[in-house]
User: Fold GTPase Der from Acidaminobacter hydrogenoformans DSM 2784.
Amino acid sequence: MMRKPVVAVVGRPNVGKSTFFNKVAGKRISIVEDTPGVTRDRIYVDAEWLNYKFTMIDTGGIEPDSKDVILSQMREQAQIAIDTADVILFMIDGKSAYTTGDEEIALMLQRAGKPVILTVNKVDNALPNEFYYDYYNLGLGEPFLISAINVLGIGDLLDEIVQYFPKPSATEEEDETIHVAVIGKPNAGKSSLINSILGEQRVIVSEIAGTTRDAIDTPFQYNKDDYVFIDTAGIRRKSRVNESIEKYSILRALTAIERSDVCLLVLDASEGVTEQDKKIAGYAHEAGKGVIIVVNKWDLIEKDNYTFNQFEKLVRNELAYLQYAPILFVSAVTKQRLFKLLDTIKHVSTECAKRISTGLLNDVLNEAVMLTQPPSDKGKRLKIYYMTQASVKPPTFILFVNDQELAHFSYVRYIENFLRKNFDFVGTPIRFIVREKKEVKA
Assistant:
């Protein structure tokens, strides 16, 4: 399945990677919704340049010359970042000569076989500095001079980055395989769930939280439909990320979400909904992916007539922005409801790709407006002229209105709920773009 290219920004600490990352992030144009509980802290950003969409990741500082026990972990995390990326931006400090640490990282990158762009940061003008020609000794070609803090040279650098991306193909065939990312915090039973569905030990299972470092793709066929399950590393809370490598495990999970159609958010029934579950759910929601909430280890819960309803109410309250996501109570051990889970994955995948004709869409919109009038402010009332569907995965609609300022999020949410009432859209978020369209006077 096609996914957005990944650009990894690597280098030693304090060379300005995060400043560059934040400048690119600050230029992002995207739909932002004010939804309580959806995380905003990021080690990645979705960006766009010259009509190319890509994901940029901030990898933190690599210290290959460290003498302590962290050395091996640093090398491993660097390798994971290298393996994940399509293009590597290697940043060094332009206020000094390169270091032995820079040399070691450069050698590591040369062996990777990936496009590497040598970026010299903190250069306050476009002229080569006193160290410029020495940078060629790193063996990575022509250095790009930038000043991230002054936004100098960033456009030229982005031009170079996108040269390495695959060209969009209008003739590319649609992949009908359903890609399913299995996400959740460590030890929720993600690998066990996949193994139980597959009926064989295809993924290593361990009681040690965090066993799955990489995202593992496993093809599978059910009812003549092709699936790929993507088992991801458990995403830990920041306070528990004692090893820097866990940051890259999170990265693998995020890139798995990016190239999925449907995400299975696996909760541990014995723990309920944790803060970390909310954060992971936020990643999938913001990525616009189909979501199914899978409560695993349901066989371990003592039940009475109220247990199911109480737990479902708890999940709905804690994950309020995932009201559209179906909830399934399963057991990887007893295989309870696993076939129902597969049927639900298929259904949600279909809903994510659902298209509604403009005529039918506006019939429903007119009914919604008739039942509940749009809001007004200072004597001026919101008018919605018409609505059209712009895209799928997730279903995205454009509302043409007289004044964007009058399109309060609560009324847009009302329209969303009305669409769901008429067209379901089970398991998929819905996006809205509000555009002004001035009335034409006769």
Q: What stands out?
A: DSSP finds eleven helices and 17 strands in the chain.
